[in-house]
Amino acid sequence: EAGVAQSPRYKIIEKRQSVAFWCNPISGHATLYWYQQILGQGPKLLIQFQNNGVVDDSQLPKDRFSAERLKGVDSTLKIQPAKLEDSAVYLCASSPRGGSTDTQYFGPGTRLTVL
Amino acid sequence: RKEVEQDPGPFNVPEGATVAFNCTYSNSASQSFFWYRQDCRKEPKLLMSVYSSGNEDGRFTAQLNRASQYISLLIRDSKLSDSATYLCAVNMGRFPGNTPLVFGKGTRLSVIA
After folding, report:
1. CB B92 within 8 A of CB B31
2. Which of A99, A59, A106, A47 has the alpha carbon at shortest distance from B87?
3. A53 at the B interface (CB within 8 A)?
4. Secondary structure letter of residue B49 according to DSSP
């Protein structure tokens, strides 16, 4: 079974530029999550989708971050404009139903460096 | 108090040793608990779910203590390949269908030959 796919794997941009990340979850998984992992920290949830609806975006900095999952499958996360403190690994995860005991499967992440 | 706290380590142990990690959580209503393993520059991978009755998988044992609000991970007969960061994760949904994992900072383990 194919895992969660993410691209690009690495991105280097200058502050105030825009960047977008893409995620393709495991086939059939209804729930998709974006997490941000800053070096030395655990992942922190940015947004949770159930199919194409947003369940929780309370920790998404909405002045600069946006995310969508239009057809309930792939998702994109955008940062515009980027700040130095956005340097982190952006992890996409999916789970079958979004139940509290479901395993969340993580993709390899996109490592963003903002200069 | 932070939502999920772990001792960051590092824990440096010889091969064959037994090592234990603890993780405390703040929300007494939390329902599900997990240990993830993260290798350097890789994504987190589920190691074990933690059940109320405790669970064991080979050399790994996980326990949950709801009264004291902590979970633990015990690794017996450590192998070099166990060297990694171990992340504690707690599902802290605030409403039905809300299932974000809140992670600790992770505990780094180095197993030395």
Report:
1. no
2. A106
3. no
4. E
Q: For residue A86, which of A109, A108, A59, A111 has the smallest C-alpha distance?
A: A111
Query: Strand (E) positions, chain A?
Result: 5-7, 10-13, 19-24, 31-37, 44-50, 53-56, 65-68, 75-79, 88-95, 105-106, 110-114
Strand partners, A65: A79
Mutation target for A interface from B99, B105, B107: give the one with most A CBs within 10 A: B99
Q: Which two tokens stand for residue B35?
A: 């240990």
Enumerate the residues of chain A whose CB falls inside 8 A of the CB of residue B46: 103-105
Question: Would you give per-residue pLDDT tens digits along chain B (113 residues)?
Answer: 789 999 888 999 999 999 999 999 998 888 899 999 999 999 999 999 998 888 999 999 999 999 999 999 999 999 999 999 999 999 987 777 778 899 999 999 999 99
Phi and psi at B18, nearest 5°, equal -105, 135
Note the helical H segments in B11-67.
Answer: none
Residue in this structure with the two tokens 């963003």, named with its chain if needed = A112
